[in-house]
Structures are given as C-alpha cells and as structure tokens.
User: Fold this.
Amino acid sequence: MREIAYDDLVKSVKAMVMHTASHLPEDALKAIEKAYEEEKSEVAKSVLKQILDNAQLAKSEDRPLCQDTGLAVYFINVGEDVKVVGGSIRDAINEATEQAYKEGYLRASTCDCFDRHNLKDEVGYNLPAVIHFDIVPGDKIEIEYAAKGGGSENVSRATVLAPAQGKPGIMNFVKQVISDAGPNPCPPIIVGVGIGGTFEVAAKSSKHALFREAGTPNPNPDLDAFEKELKEELNKLGIGAMGMGGTQTVLAVHIEKNPCHIASLPVSVNVQCHSSRHSHITL
Amino acid sequence: MAEYHMTTPLSDEDVSKLEAGDIVYLSGTIYTARDAAHKRLVDLIEKGEELPFDLKGSVIYFVGPTPPKPGEPIGSAGPTTSYRMDSYSPILIKHGQKGMIGKGKRSQEVKDACKEHKAVYFGATGGAGALIAKAIKKAKVIAYEELGPEAVRELEVENFPVTVINDTKGNDLYEMGRAKYEVKD
Ligand code: SF4
Assistant:
C-alpha cells in the first residue's frame, strides 16, 4: 500500500486552488480567443476583448479572475492501493480549500439555505468543499478541481424525458435551458450535458463534463457529432458575449452518457461561464 | 452606438441622451449594494428614515468584491446578477437613483421605472473582476459592515466601462442584440 502524507496532500491541493483563482486555463483562453476572432458583433467583440484583457491582468497581478471565486468542487479518484496517513482525505481537501481561500484573498461564498448567513465562522471559510469521491484501481490519487461560480450554476437544469423523445427531445431541452438563461450565466459559456443514468447520475455527469478540456473531441464519435450539432444550434440563439447579441454564445458542448432504465431518459444541463477555472493533479 | 464619459451624480439630462448599446465611462462616486443591503435601504425609505448616502443622481453597483489584498482599495469587483435586486430597484429609482450597474436581465417593473423616472441600467462585463478593479481608486464601507462582501461601499471610480442595457425609452439591449443575431430555421 502506497502512502501519502496528509500534509503533502494539503499543500498540493492548496497550491492548485490558489493558482486556479487567477489563472484562466489554456483551453478556455484558446476558446475565447477563437470566439473573439469569429464574432460578428462589435459590442460582443468588445466584451470578449475585456474578458481576454482581464485574464491577462489577473495572471500578471495574481488577482482573482472574478469576484465570485466560487464553491470549491472536486472529483477525486482514489486508487485502491494508496492511503493517506495522518488524517482523512476529506479533511485534507477541506483544510486546503480553507487555507487557499483565506490566504489567496478569495471570497467565502457558502451560506445557510434559509437565513442565508455566511458559514465562514461556524463551518469554515468557503467550506464545506463539494467533493465527489470514486474508488479506482491503482495507487494514485487523481484530483480534478473547479471553482464554480453561482451565476452559471443558477441557470442549470435537470429533467427526465420520455425515451421516445430521444435526441430531438434532448436538443429541445438544452436549447430551452440556454435560451432562458440568456445573459445571466456570463456567456460565452461551456455547456455540460449529462444524459442517462438515474436522475442524480445525469446531474453529476453534466458537472463532470465541464472538467474536460474545451475544444478536445469527445472520444465517442456519435457523441462528438451530437456535441457539434448542439453547439451550432445553440449559437443560432444569438445571445452573444454577456447577452449583448452575437454569434459566439457557446464555446463548447461536452456530453457524458450513461446507460439508463428502459423507462426513462434523464437529461441534465450544467452551465459553465467563460471564467472556466479548473485544474487537476495526480499524486 | 455612441461613447460617453460621464461623472456622477447623473442628471435627467445625462441619462436621457443614453441609448441601449452605448458605451459609458463612468467617473466619480458610486455605491455598492447587493440584495441584503437593498432590502435595508428600502426598509429605511418605507420608515421615512435617512439613507446612508444621497440617492439623488446616484449610481448603485451590484457587486460583492473579494477581500482586498493589503494596500489595495478593493479585491476583484465584477458585477453580480441583477434580477435579485428587481423588487427593490423601482423604489430606489422613484426616490432619485439614476443608474444601476450589474449583469443579466431585469424585470418589466424595473424597465418601466427607468422609463417613467428617467434612469438607466448599465451592464458591466461579468467575470472581468480584475480589470474592473483597476477603475476603482478608493473604496470605503459606509454602512452594514456586518454584511461582509454585501456591505454598502462608497467607491471612487475613474473611467469605469459599462454598456447601456435599458435606457429611458424602454429599449433593451439584450432583446435588440439577440434579435439581430438570432438565426431562425
Ligand atoms: S457567472 Fe462566472 S464569470 Fe459570471 S460572475 Fe459568476 S463566476 Fe464570475
């Protein structure tokens, strides 16, 4: 059994979280640059320019890209032949999150659902982190991380379609969600679509789909074609950068598909704003 | 689309010349408030009590910044989604507020209030928090410190870049822009 020290885990995750707040990853940058080149609307182009300038400035001055520094969301694959010594993995992730958000001057955004008071003093600064664990073969710990803002999360939706509705039904649902969202999720956006599984599996898959590098093809050729078709359809909505009208609304569509029950077709749409802050490390 | 440089407080004349799609560089004093602070401001108006700042000609920025690093006036400070202020804004507009800065769609009531009382809704670029912070020269909490990022701050801004979304004539850039680029099969 391979061993990883608790403190080493905290250190690595903390460094990743701090870095992610101010460094827009290459895939998002490239996708936005491409949108800037292809955009026909002058107003939308000026918005895309601001977004690119902002990324440059955030990086050079080490400032948060956006004031909504998000909830800390993790997908963690823990190998069967590795263990963390000196504490639990969950505690290490939460500790790293809290330290990174505090020391990086990031915003604490977790609150109580009803009275809306910030939980920074009683639970921890921007805690709890949202953690999805899985157990996999091997002796590594793979950690995918995203700082997920509220604006794009607020417009995300899930449903269960009738099987007969098929791909056209999925297309209509996704189109409706993005059309209703309009300017609110800070377009240009990346659209994660979870298809199949059970209700919650579809939702989780739609979130996980957002972790894929934008612009990389889907390994399944059928899904890859469907992603391209969806992107084209969604860009016809004309929403444009920050909703001001334009041809470039969607940077990428990412689909994850799972087998489902013979009676149902769950579909979930999770939206990611242009500030697509994500990273991964393997320990 | 025209470009203007304007200094707060804004007059009826200032806002009346603005049209949806115009770009404005704002300078002067503006105030920050999100939903919790809006609720308190409206409560004060309803009780007939004095507000922490003069609403006449004011511009309110919907923002909850990140904490400032030592020696800096403010952290990253991009706009938050505006619809959460929709139930409060018409009351503030009626009492003299002239501008709002945020992102995302507003309700019909807000657009009507802009038309009736001459006010505008400006959009700032969401997610451009580091860039916008550059336009903010000074920041001071003037009320509701206990609300943390949601406290009311007085900001000194210089050439803060915004785009007119809803003007005093009932136009909406989100609808106009989308109609122009929508492809119907
Ligand atoms: S939707 Fe994204 S870019 Fe827009 S304010 Fe929220 S986190 Fe920032």
About this structure: The beta strands of chain B are 3-7, 23-32, 59-61, 99-102, 120-123, 136-143, 152-166. Chain B has six helices and seven strands.
